[in-house]
Amino acid sequence: MASKGIKDQVAIVGMGCTPFGEHWDKSVDDMLIEASSEAYADAGIAQDDVDAYWFGTLGSGVSGLTLSRALKIDYKPVTRVENMCATGSEAFRNACYAVASGAYDLVAAIGVEKLKDNGMSGLVGAPLPSDGTRPELTAPAMFSLLAPAYAKKYGVDEAEMKDVLTRIAWKNHYNGARNPRAQFRKEVSKEKICNAPLIAGQLGIFDCSGVSDGSAMAIICRAEDAHKYTDKPLYVKALAFAAGPAAGPIDPDYDYTTFNEVSASVADAYAQADITDPRAEIAMAEVHDCFTPTELVLMEDLGFAERGLGWKEVLAGTFDLDGELPINPDGGLKSFGHPIGASGLRMLFECWLQLRQEAPDDRQIRSVTEDGKTLGMTHNLGGAPGECVSFVSIVGSELG
Amino acid sequence: MPTESNLPTNAAYPTLDSEPFWDALNDDRLHLPRCTACAYVIWYPRHHCPNCGAGRDQIEWFDASGRGAVYSYTVVRRNRGSWGEILPYIVAYVELDEGPRIMTNIVECDPESVTIGQAVEAVFHSVPEARQREHGATGVLRFRPSA
What we know:
The structure holds 2 protein chains of 2 kinds. By secondary structure, chain A is an alpha/beta fold. Chain A has 2 domains: about 10-120 and about 215-235, Peroxisomal Thiolase, Chain A, domain 1 (3-Layer(aba) Sandwich); about 140-205 and about 235-395, 3-Layer(aba) Sandwich (Peroxisomal Thiolase, Chain A, domain 1). Chain A is about 35% helix and about 20% strand. Chain A is built from 14 helices and 11 strands. Chain A has helices at about 30-45, 65-70, 85-100, 140-145, 145-155, 160-175, 190-195, 260-275, 280, 290-300, 310-315, 330-335, 340-355, 365-370, and strands at about 10-15, 50-55, 80, 105-115, 200, 205, 215-220, 235-245, 280-285, 375-385, 385-395. Chain B is mainly beta. Chain B has one domain (about 5-145). Chain B has helices spanning about 20-25, 130-135, and strands spanning about 5, 30-35, 60-65, 65-75, 90-95, 100-105, 120-125, 140-145. In chain B, strands 1, 4, 5, 6, 7 and 8 form a 6-stranded mixed β-sheet that branches. Chain B has a two-stranded antiparallel ribbon with strand order 2-3. Chain B is globular.
């Protein structure tokens, strides 16, 4: 049975988000203080008004003390949360449930990660339990397996596939160039993306998301209290999460052209939010573009494109900033960067700006301002093809 | 005798259930469990059948041919640590003639020459003595192109 959902029971009433990037001059504490100060000011509250905290980090600290020590929180509950790259979303989900249960009036979900000080590029994570027969893989290598599998299944030749992946990276750089908080704020030509040094399989350096430092926070209360804090709350319509059996890598039936965990979580989210035609009903989505083929496959798994046709929609510009359904208008993991624990909340931050029409003019999407759509989605993935956790949230600026 | 590995090795975790697989690598054999109830060939090595649920009394071990074909692959061009010193290297899924699909490394060939469907055969590497304690086993299974 799917979850019952908590549609319209809780609302986001304030958010904060640091710039993402290489913050050699800032500690984890500094970033937590920066994101939370902005969120408190946005909601018009003092820290003491917050009843409980959910704190997400993959590896930039342990326990609730990492947050309570940094913010000097006076004897309140702080829950440390970890769920791979979906850590920030998991902090948000559990914070929402705590308010919906009636246990607390006002809570905060905050995520942080500091990746650039660890002396190497990329993630340092504990591997999943295994039997020891697997060879050494990198994150780009795991996700690179999506590209040839997709191309073969749907008859896309190698050059066309490279164009599709390049188009996704180009689009996310274009969007990031309009985002002052993004790690990479430059447009990059398709030629440069296409000819970049290869990292794994067909994937070049521009097919990979940014490794960065950053933090983001959301303040959450019951929906009926929302207008105490803001004229423009975002109501939570759906929170869905799926962890799979992680059998893909040894399952002969798994073909690397889909994420079963995503299909399961998004079906639950659409049921909770009463959405039947996502492409028409949703104004925008922030999706987990850790590598360019991931974003391509997600367009189909999330129901934004038909199976096998997602690549054509990418090339046609359907998901561009001025397209029918803008995807990653803030630049996504690709350009905004990916400080793990903060990423899920960063995605909500873009919904917060776009749906309330507070994004910068050159980035504000027309599906909200002209078409009057009110719903946004965040999709956050942790793990790798065949063995991942998937989170989907749907938020909206109107009740009902 | 297996040849000493030129690739680094990750930690292996032999258990009572998988020890026959790891031990056989030392004599150049790909020794796999098979279900006597449904004939399913089991990967990764363990003492129950993931296909029909049969328990340990219905599992038998046999020597597989070691032959198979590349199902898919990727070339890792950047990594860190000891793996960063032997770039580029190949990570592939090999579908064995007996059925299972195994994630492994393809060795003894130019990484740019690997193709989907290419015929490959098992090759058995020994783990250098200095690394055996860390690796947890003395052998490691890899594949190379076959004629």
